[in-house]
């Protein structure tokens, strides 16, 4: 076992984690734990862009109202206004740091960079770097973080759980390397930037999605989890059962892409007046209904009418990727299907990333700030990463120098043991069974009977897992245990919401409740 100490430990190296690290490094020594293969995170795969009020033809109140409408009555308006108001400065910070956003070269351009429009937005306010915005932001920020003398990047370990001091405050994490050696990472402040929980489902929009381990690490320390039932399914993931996941950006519909059923007919105009630009929950349910009525297992997204030159100009990444899978999107429509994409729920935080556990912060998709409510509006995700990473940094930079935890050198460490015999076949079967259960019963449409089936089935999977290692000491068992427990809490949150709202749709509860409230759960709720 080895031990190290830092001012701030950041777990996760996406846009939120990198932004926090770079902003804090002016004063603190930061340890940033991120995967050796940084393309595993969701940030890199974000195509469409970042929503912010940048054009003189747009205004803050319009962005606020669009977000509130998309959130279907469950947004925290204070968090919405905080995010929107701080959005332009966050974008300028990226520009100042060299992110190569796509310029607007039109002679009558009202803003220096090209702005597109996506579902739920009533204005062009999505700044982007072609159709690979996440990659551009990650590459730019990572180059700076890698060169910064106060930032130590650790790609040799993966975090398994968090540490507490004798007062119950978080004081770091314990991690493990590929050889099975345990590493104790002590820190005055610990920030989770570990992503969401779309990996609880079979089909996702990223090749290596997070399965919510960070959320449950926080819950294991007593943190509150909020709005877990609101799992967003992106309407348009490339349909290819034999190939890796690949997202077809909402910007494709923003530029005029049309959804067609098996008969080649548009169906969204009869579902919603906003047609293909309706909020994602509406579009995803409409596609799901068409798939259930058909036999192909997908619908079509058609952009041929835009012309080959416009397609190659606006969507070079999507064009190239589809071509690599023998689909010429200038000549044929794209087969698409909804897939788990974004967790609107997560660790409950305030406007500065603070959780209910002292010393522990959460930013990005792992957190629930109240911004998204019951449904995230397109391209508000990277905006949230930036704004709340910067506000979290502002809060930490304001802490006095004598704020070091007094018991930092004697954390409560649960021993890990990677030498415990492990049947990986059984582990894979349990993970597959969890994902199948969630996809069948807790996906786009939820039924009371389906949730009643899912709850005991997931509890049985947890029991089977713990039979292999009763104390959960093996790191891989600990990770899967976190995921199964988060799945159980997600089912419980869905069972307790007796209404249909945003991403939570149930034919058994088809109407809105008169006075909706966010859901709040802790680990104790499934341990009673």
From TrEMBL:
Query: What protein am I looking at?
Result: L-aspartate oxidase
Q: Name one Pfam family in it.
A: FAD_binding_2
- Gene encoding it? nadB
Q: Which reaction does it catalyse?
A: L-aspartate + O2 = iminosuccinate + H2O2
Q: Where is the Fumarate reductase/succinate dehydrogenase flavoprotein-like C-terminal domain?
A: 431-511
Which key words tag this protein in UniProt?
FAD, Flavoprotein, Oxidoreductase, Pyridine nucleotide biosynthesis
- Name one molecular function that GO assigns to this entry: L-aspartate oxidase activity
Keyword set includes Flavoprotein: yes
């Amino acid at each position: 076992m080895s031990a190290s100490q830092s001012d701030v430990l950041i777990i996760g190296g996406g846009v939120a984690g990198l932004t926090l690290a770079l902003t804090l490094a002016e004063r603190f020594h930061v340890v940033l734990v991120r995967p050796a293969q940084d393309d595993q995170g969701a940030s890199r795969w974000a195509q469409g862009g970042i929503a912010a009020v940048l054009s003189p033809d747009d205004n803050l109140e319009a962005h606020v109202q669009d977000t509130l409408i998309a959130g279907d009555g469950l947004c925290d308006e204070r968090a919405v206004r905080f995010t929107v108001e701080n959005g332009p400065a966050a974008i300028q910070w990226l520009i100042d740091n060299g992110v190569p956003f796509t310029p607007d070269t039109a002679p009558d351009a009202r803003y220096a960079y090209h702005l597109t429009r996506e579902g739920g937005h009533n204005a062009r306010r999505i700044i982007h770097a072609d159709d690979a915005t996440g990659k551009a932001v990650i590459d730019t920020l990572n180059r700076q973080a890698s060169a910064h003398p106060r930032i130590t990047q650790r790609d040799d370990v993966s975090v398994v759980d968090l540490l507490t001091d004798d007062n119950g405050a978080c004081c770091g994490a314990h991690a493990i390397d590929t050889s099975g050696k345990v590493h104790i990472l002590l820190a005055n402040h610990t920030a989770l930037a570990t992503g969401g929980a779309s990996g609880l489902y079979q089909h996702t929009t990223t090749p290596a999605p997070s399965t919510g381990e960070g959320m449950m690490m926080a819950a294991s320390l007593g943190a509150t989890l909020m709005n877990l039932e609101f799992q967003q399914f992106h309407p348009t993931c490339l349909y290819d059962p034999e190939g890796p996941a690949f997202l077809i950006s909402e910007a494709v519909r923003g530029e005029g892409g049309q959804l067609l059923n098996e008969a080649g007919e548009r169906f969204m105009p009869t579902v919603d007046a906003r047609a293909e630009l309706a909020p994602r929950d509406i579009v995803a349910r409409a596609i799901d209904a068409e798939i259930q009525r058909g036999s192909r297992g997908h619908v079509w997204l058609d952009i041929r009418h835009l012309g080959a030159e416009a397609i190659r100009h606006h969507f070079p990444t999507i064009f190239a990727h589809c071509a690599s899978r023998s689909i010429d999107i200038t000549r044929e429509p794209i087969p698409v299907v909804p897939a788990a994409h974004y967790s609107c729920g997560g660790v409950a935080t305030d406007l500065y990333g603070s959780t209910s556990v002292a010393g522990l912060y959460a930013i990005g998709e792992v957190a629930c700030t109240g911004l998204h409510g019951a449904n995230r509006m397109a391209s508000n995700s990277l905006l949230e990463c930036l704004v709340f990473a910067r506000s979290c940094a502002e809060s930490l930079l304001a802490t006095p120098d004598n704020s070091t935890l007094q018991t930092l050198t004697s954390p409560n460490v649960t021993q890990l043991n990677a030498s415990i015999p492990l049947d990986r076949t059984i582990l894979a079967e349990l993970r597959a069974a969890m994902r199948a259960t969630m996809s069948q019963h807790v996906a786009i449409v939820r039924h009371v009977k389906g949730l009643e089936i899912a709850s005991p089935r997931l509890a049985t999977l947890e029991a089977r897992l713990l039979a292999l290692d009763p104390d959960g000491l093996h790191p891989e068992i600990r990770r899967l245990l976190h995921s199964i427990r988060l799945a159980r809490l997600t089912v419980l949150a869905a069972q307790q919401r007796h209404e249909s709202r945003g991403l939570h749709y149930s034919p058994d509860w088809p109407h809105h409740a008169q006075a909706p409230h966010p859901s709040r759960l802790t680990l104790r709720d499934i341990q009673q």
